[in-house]
Write a structure and sequence with these properties.
DNA Polymerase III, Chain A, domain 2; DNA-directed DNA polymerase; elongated; DNA_polIII_beta; 8-stranded antiparallel β-sheet; 371 residues; 3'-5' exonuclease activity; 18% helix; 3 domains; alpha+beta
């Protein structure tokens, strides 16, 4: 294989495909990138860690076809430091080496046999969805941080993707908090589609979608994998086979206290209170009384924090103990200036919503006294 490619094009492409390169040493070849140069086609880059796979096509002048797997980290470091000019790459298919050359630089890089690189799974089209990239990224970013990071239950280590009628729903929970986001779509289906996408796949997908604003994303789903096509890139992810809890059972149908509060003021006050709360239990007490929210650290031997924030309240005085990080996390992803807090009592979840949007719901389970 022999090709010429612009440094900036190659560098930007490598940053994208490197997101699926395996970080473990179990299979050395997974630390590499598959480069495929076909006649009259673009250069194709492929990476996978066996959970997620990324395929990307970029323009290159391919003078001789062929394939090779090159170590991703070493290749990326070299290309990043080369000057912004055309790069000539010549591959020896017999000993799996590549020469990388510019006007004043020359590198030789040892690679792997491309035939040993695992093929990405084919995804049969059980269901096909088209959605705007900005809309999809927004849904993912609003729920992915609520996935379980402790791997206690496989079904909780990802987010549930539900497609039914004219809407798409994504839900994530670790049983102590839950994030729910709904968007209307043009597709109408009879039977609900339910799949669990691993949180690592959602993180990488969200990062990649940031480079493809306002583009159409074609989503293909079968029983074991999901594939996203957008721009010049394809991301494939396995699906989690575990069971996702019935989230609708914990969605509150009513409340007896509604609070409206300026989001930035609340976030700043909670962050300050967390400076003490995180030194011990990480729990804060929220006391809603008249036109004030009083925020205090709980069970800390290091000191005490007290904050007050102005609120608009409809209901009687209430208080609740919650994990301070769970509240900070949701306030950081809300873009509206005002949020709504809904309460039932100190032993029921605290509901966080945007002021004028019922399609995003976030629940925080209370911390019981003595827990």
């Amino acid at each position: 294989m022999n090709f010429i490619i612009e440094q900036s094009v190659f560098h930007n492409a490598l940053k994208k495909v490197n997101r699926a390169v395996s970080k473990s040493n179990t299979l050395p070849i997974l630390s590499g990138l598959l480069l495929k140069g076909a006649e009259n086609k673009n250069l194709q880059l492929v990476s996978t860690d066996l959970e997620i796979g990324i395929e990307l096509e970029i323009g290159a002048d391919i003078n001789q076809t062929g394939n090779i797997v090159l170590p991703a980290n070493e290749l990326s470091n070299i290309i990043r430091e080369l000057p912004a000019e055309p790069i000539h790459i010549k591959v020896n298919q017999d000993n799996y080496t590549a020469e990388i050359q510019t006007s004043n630089s020359h590198f030789k890089l040892n690679g792997f046999n491309p035939e040993e690189f695992p093929s990405l799974p084919e995804v049969e089209k059980n269901y096909n969805l088209k959605i705007n990239s900005d809309q999809l990224k927004n849904i993912i970013d609003r729920v992915k941080f609520s996935c379980d990071k402790n791997n206690s239950q496989p079904g909780l280590t990802g987010a549930l993707l539900s497609i039914k009628e004219n809407e798409i729903i994504m839900v994530a929970t670790n049983t102590y908090r839950m994030a729910y986001c709904k968007k209307d779509i043009d597709h109408e289906i009879g039977e609900e589609i339910r799949n669990i996408i691993p949180v690592n796949s959602l993180n990488e997908l969200s990062n990649l979608l940031g480079d493809y604003e306002d583009e159409e994303v074609n989503v293909i789903i079968d029983n074991s994998h999901i594939k996203f096509y957008f721009g010049d890139l394809i991301l494939t992810s396995r699906l989690i086979e575990g069971k996702f809890p019935n989230y609708q059972q914990v969605m509150p149908n009513d409340f007896n206290n509604l609070i409206r509060i300026e989001k930035d003021s609340l976030l700043k006050a909670v962050k300050r209170a967390s400076l003490i709360a995180k030194l011990d239990s990480g729990v804060i007490n929220l006391k809603f009384t008249n036109d004030k929210l009083i925020i205090e650290s709980v069970n800390s031997e290091k000191g005490h924090a007290h904050e007050e924030v102005n609120i608009e309240m409809d209901g009687g005085e209430q208080n609740i103990n919650i994990d301070v990080n769970y509240l900070i996390d949701v306030l950081k992803i809300i873009s509206e200036e005002e949020v709504k807090l809904e309460l039932i009592g100190p032993l029921n979840p605290l509901t966080v919503k945007e002021a004028d949007n019922e399609d995003f719901i976030y629940l925080i389970m209370p911390v019981r006294p003595g827990s």
